[in-house]
Amino acid sequence: MPLKLRAAGLTDVGRKRKANEDNLYLSPLHGIYSVADGMGGHACGEVASQIAVETLGRFFEETARDRERTWPFKMDKSLSYEENRLSVAVKLSNKLIYERAQKDMRQKGMGTTLVVVSVLDDVAYIAHVGDSRVYRLRQGEFTQMTEDHSLLNDYMKIKPLTPEEIENFPHKNVIVRALGMKHSVEVDLCKVDVEPGDLFLLCSDGLSGLVTDPEMAKIVTNYRSDLDKACQKLIDEANANGGNDNITVMLVEALE
């Protein structure tokens, strides 16, 4: 029997930016939850992130109605149908963003991160490109489920860094993979079992860059009875710590 889910999402411009280039998409009907963090300036980032979440949502709606619908990319035989469906949706988003940027010089260079959680029955399929993140809170344990596609993370694979070195790393915000950067994109995929009581947090780096993992876990735990309030408290904490970027959070809980 499929698990019952409840979810909430919220986005905020933060304290330093004039425009919000983040977008989110939440569809309990299709079990799709996503956060996109746009980049490119002059509102182009907002265009890219909006294309990403709208394309994702539209593809899942259309394939739910018609499983025989022709896909824009071939299926990977090593992946399940649902994994392919998710991967193709993200690749299609990338294609549309890239093509849009090639047609309009004002939007050249725009792009976006994207994290998606697709829940079917008692399995969560996670796809991501960029440095937006998915965490899971399970029985008090708070775990990051995605790996940042960032210059900092690549550097840390080569050489361990102290907390002070991480804080002072000169290119912390440089990402090495995003939708719209190239005509094709590599999508990281994983699937995990979902247990009653599991809670997933999706967020842009406007949250994870300013609020520590332990503090995020504490806020989510303290306010999980009201997911809307929990989202607001997470954003409030990021703004209290400087709010130097747009902040987007989404919480998805499997009910017990």
What can you see in these coordinates?
This protein is α+β, with helices and mostly antiparallel strands. It has one domain (5-254): Phosphatase 2c, domain 1 (4-Layer Sandwich), CATH 3.60.40. Helices cover 34% and strands 26% of the residues. It contains seven helices and eleven strands. Strands 2, 3, 4, 5, 6 and 9 form a six-stranded antiparallel β-sheet that branches. Strand 5 (114-120) and strand 6 form a beta hairpin. Helix 1 (44-65) runs antiparallel to helix 2. The radius of gyration is 18 Å and the shape is globular. The protein starts with a strand and ends with a strand. The model has no long low-confidence stretch (mean pLDDT 91).
List the helices and strands and how they pair.
Elements: E1 5-12, E2 22-27, E3 32-39, H1 44-65, H2 81-103, E4 111-112, E5 114-120, E6 123-129, E7 133-138, E8 141-144, H3 151-158, H4 163-167, E9 188-193, E10 199-203, H5 205-208, H6 213-223, H7 227-240, E11 247-254
Antiparallel strand pairs: 1-11, 2-3, 3-4, 3-5, 5-6, 6-9, 7-8, 7-10, 10-11
Helix pairs in contact: 1-2, 6-7
